[in-house]
Amino acid sequence: MNSPWRGMFRRARRHRAQCVTHASSRAATVFASLVVLLLVFALAPTAHATGRADCLSLTSKILRHSVGYCILLPPSYDVDAARRYPILYFLHGLGENEQFLVRGGGLNLVEDLWEQHEIADYLIVTPAADSSFYINSHDGQARYEDFVIQEFLPFIERRYRTRHGRAARGIGGISMGGYGALHLAFRHPELFGSVSAHSAALIERLPEAAGSNRPPTPGLRMLGNVFGAPVDRVFWERNDPLALGRTANLAALKIYFDCGSEDDYGFEAGAAVLDKELTARRIAHEFHIYPGRHDWPYFAEHLHASLEFESQAFGPGNEKN
User: What is the pLDDT averaged over residues 114-134?
Assistant: First the structure.
C-alpha cells in the first residue's frame, strides 16, 4: 500500500476515534461511523485501470503458415464479462509487423484516449501481413485477402467478445496498410461500416516502367512481386482502391483518409484523386492534406484522428464514456 493511501486511512481512523469518543448516544455513533465511511470513499483515489495488449498467433490453412497478431483490449474488457465491443482491424505498413502499435507507442496513445474519454471502448487488432498489400498475390501463392475475410475475421470474432454486424466493424491502416484498408473496405463494403487510412499507398499513375522489362524504380520495387514482376497493369487496376472507388457501392461506408503534403512517395497525389472521385460520386467522406512527410512523426501526430473517427463511426450504443 503506497503512502498516499496510508495517509488517507490514518486520517479516517483518527476522525472515527474522535467521533466515537465524543458521541453521547448510539445514534450519534452510528451517524459518525457513516460519515467516516463516506470520507474514506471520498478521499481514496480510484484505481487506474489500463488496457492491455495480447500478442498471439493463429495457424492459417489458406496461407499455410502461422500468422501473428496483437489485440488491444480496453480497461473495461476484463471488468464487464457480459459486454460486447466494436472492433477495428488496423493494418501495418511495409517493413512493419503485428507489433507496430505496441512497440511504437501506439498502445500508450490509445490508453490515453481511453483514459481521457476521447474514444469509446473498442477492440483494435493488428495482424501481421509481411509485404502482401493485403491482397491475393498475382501468382496466387499468397492469398492474403482470402485469409483476412475467410479466416482472420471469423477467428477473432469468435475468440473475443465483439458486437455483430458491419456497423460494429471498422478497418484502418498506415501506408501499405492504408492501401489494404481501402482495398478491403471497397471490395467488401458489406463487411465493414467504416474505413480510415493515413498516407495510403495510392499511386495516381503507374510509372512507364511498369509492365516492361526495364529496371524497376524504387517506387515499383516497393510493390515487390505482389502485383507481378513486371507489374501487371490489369491486375493492378483490379485491386487499386482508386479504381474500386469509381465503381464500388460505398454509399453506406464511412470513410476517412489523410496524407502528408510532402509524402516521400507522392501518395498525396493519389489521395487527392480519391477525394475527387468520391466527391464526383457524392460519396460522403472526410479527407485532409496536412503538412508532413511519409514518416512516423506524421503518423504519430494524426493517428488519434482516425481512432476518434472510428469511435464515432461505431455510432449509438458506443458513445464516449
Answer: 96
Task: Check whether residue 100 and residue 38 sit in a common domain.
Answer: no
Q: Are residues 28 and 115 in the same domain?
A: no
Question: Which domain, by its residues, includes 231?
Answer: 52-313
Residue at 319 is within a domain: no
CA 33 to mean position of chain CA atoms: 49
What are the Cα distances from residue 303, in Å, to 14, 61, 92, 104, 228? 50, 33, 12, 12, 32
Measured distance CA(74)–CA(150) in Å, rounded: 26
What's the residue count for the chain?
321
The C-alpha cell 512517395 sits at 265
149 contacts 188 by C-beta, under 8 angstroms:
yes
- Digit-coded pLDDT (tens) for 178-192: 999 999 999 999 999
Residue 320 lies in a domain: no
Q: Which residue has the cell 473517427?
A: 309
Mark whether 38 and 62 lie in a shared domain: no
Averaged confidence pLDDT in the chain: 84
Number of domains in the chain: 2
pTM of the model: 0.82
Rg for the chain, CA atoms, rounded: 25
Query: How many other β-carbons are positioned within 10 Å of the β-carbon of residue 139?
Result: 10
